[in-house]
């Protein structure tokens, strides 16, 4: 955590006073204070990290850059702590700190979703190139909502849909309107929004777009390139499986998504051979045990066929509206049986505690189950015994600070619960959840907010970055390779940034 660069001058030990050099002696009070500080630091999540001399030099320089940024915003009377991410986004982008964090290797992005990976401007401009792409421009009804995108064959276009390209050409303002319909922003921290209702509408608007096989291929290629550009070498996607389709063949089997993604990876590997991908089979918290049972069977089948691609299982959607994790006890007790039947293990990576309420007790389940990592874990701090278990079980919490602010769980990011987890030795990594829905790409914005709002030093940043590989679902061999690459990238970053900030 952030060291205090303060120099204590003791008057008693001052050479000016005595006229000779004398070693400063600390009072008993000061000694106790210093050991208390050390004991607290020893409990933090990054206590095992020792920085090299060059890393320490860089740490001091980054601290100065941050200090300068904070004093500049203070002079300009910018209300940094009471502004939403969307309000300060231009300020972030113009900061030296952001430029610096963009060049920092991030390791892996462990928590993101299949519907939220890449830039909506790109989605619109790419979708309009397809003649068969349409947009619904009527009032919401039971089936479709305003701004919903879809592909249709000529002559089979449902009422209310118009050609996307024609609509964008005839109504130039519609592009900006559509961008807003596909992104969820918190314009300020005060106004009321029904976050989850609005959030889910964003996914619905692109839900018919992504399974169209030609578009699917372009979408993931772009998504992976965005991540690589932002120095992310590994990604794990909470993946909602849908049958891909096109108009020549109709629907393809589920596994076509995986084989297509493998082909996309091959293409990516021509320029970036280090890039790796894992999929976490995801279903929904609002389904019943019978449906989840079927989904688990499908997940196991896919894992058996593609053990290097499918890593685990998760349930998504608003925790306040869906079932508790314990509701699915029946399904979880079948996991051992399924392990044996398919000869593969399918660990859980559950979203749990994406809530500010103590009445949501989903974090209790993750300590009981074979659950490797926890999505969000925002209310874990209210369950001290479980927090201790999670620490002892060495399970990582995937923290997505910007997502947490936009969905209304945290306003002033200085008060993010993950700071309590980090101080208490719970391992975390930084994720972006659904960056495209929040109006950005990559992982640098999330690192920027943690660096600025949580007083993180280079030691903490390094631990978060390396955690994202160490706690990834890669196997030992893959991890070893990934860590070798990350170490090289990290050393290179430290050296180059040290030179640049001279
Ligand atoms: Zn999520």
UniProtKB/TrEMBL annotation:
GO BP, one annotated term: inosine biosynthetic process
Subcellular location: Secreted
Cofactor list: Zn(2+)
Keyword hit for tRNA-binding: no
Keyword hit for Transferase: yes
Pfam families, A to Z: A_deaminase
GO cellular component, one term: extracellular region
UniProt KW keywords: Hydrolase, Kinase, Metal-binding, Secreted, Signal, Transferase, Zinc
InterPro entries assigned: A/AMP_deam_AS, A_deaminase_dom, Ado/ade_deaminase, Metal_Hydrolase
GO molecular function, a single term: metal ion binding
Main location: secreted
Domain Adenosine deaminase: 196-483
Similarity comment text for this entry: Belongs to the metallo-dependent hydrolases superfamily. Adenosine and AMP deaminases family.
The protein's name in its UniProt record: Adenosine kinase
Organism annotation: Chryseobacterium culicis
């Amino acid at each position: 955590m952030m060291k205090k660069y303060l120099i204590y001058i003791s008057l008693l030990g001052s050479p000016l006073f005595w006229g000779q050099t004398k070693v400063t002696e600390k009072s008993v009070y000061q000694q106790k204070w210093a050991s208390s500080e050390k004991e607290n630091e020893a409990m933090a999540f990054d206590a095992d990290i020792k920085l090299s001399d060059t890393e320490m030099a860089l740490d001091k320089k980054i601290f100065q850059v941050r200090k300068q940024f904070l004093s500049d915003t203070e002079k300009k009377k910018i209300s940094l702590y009471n502004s939403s991410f969307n309000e300060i986004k231009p300020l972030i982008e113009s900061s030296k700190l952001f430029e610096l964090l963009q060049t920092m290797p991030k390791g892996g992005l462990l928590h993101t979703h299949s519907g939220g990976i890449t830039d909506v401007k790109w989605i619109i401009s790419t979708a309009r190139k397809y003649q068969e792409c349409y947009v619904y421009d009527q009032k919401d009804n039971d089936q479709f909502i305003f701004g919903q995108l879809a592909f249709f064959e000529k002559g089979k276009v449902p009422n209310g849909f118009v050609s996307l390209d024609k609509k964008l050409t005839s109504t130039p303002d519609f592009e900006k309107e559509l961008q807003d319909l596909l992104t969820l922003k918190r314009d300020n921290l005060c106004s009321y929004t029904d976050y989850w209702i609005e959030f889910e509408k964003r996914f619905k608007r692109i839900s018919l777009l992504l399974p169209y096989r030609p578009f699917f291929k372009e979408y993931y290629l772009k998504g992976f390139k965005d991540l690589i550009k932002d120095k992310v070498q590994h990604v794990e996607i909470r993946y909602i499986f849908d049958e891909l389709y096109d108009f020549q063949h109709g629907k393809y089997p589920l596994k076509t998504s995986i084989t297509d993604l493998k082909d996309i990876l091959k293409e990516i590997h021509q320029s970036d051979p280090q890039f790796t991908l894992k999929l976490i089979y995801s279903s929904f918290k609002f389904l019943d045990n019978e449906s989840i049972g079927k989904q688990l069977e499908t997940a196991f089948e896919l894992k058996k066929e593609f053990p290097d691609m499918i890593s685990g299982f998760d349930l998504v959607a608003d925790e306040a509206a869906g079932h508790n994790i314990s509701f699915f006890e029946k399904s979880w007790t079948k996991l051992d049986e399924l392990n044996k039947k398919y000869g593969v293990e399918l660990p859980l990576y559950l979203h749990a505690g994406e809530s500010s309420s103590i009445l949501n007790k989903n974090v209790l389940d993750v300590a009981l189950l074979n659950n490797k990592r926890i999505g969000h874990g925002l209310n874990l701090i209210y369950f001290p015994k479980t927090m201790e278990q999670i620490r002892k079980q060495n399970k990582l919490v995937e923290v997505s600070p910007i997502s947490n602010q936009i969905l209304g769980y945290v306003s002033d990011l200085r008060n993010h619960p993950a700071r309590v987890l980090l101080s208490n030795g719970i391992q975390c990594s930084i994720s972006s959840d659904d960056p495209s829905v929040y109006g950005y790409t990559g992982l640098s914005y999330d690192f920027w907010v943690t660096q600025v709002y949580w007083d993180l030093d280079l030691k903490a940043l390094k631990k978060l970055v390396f955690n994202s590989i160490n706690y990834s679902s890669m196997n030992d061999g893959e991890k070893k390779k990934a860590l070798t690459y990350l170490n090289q990238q990290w050393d290179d970053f430290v050296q180059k940034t040290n030179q640049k900030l001279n």
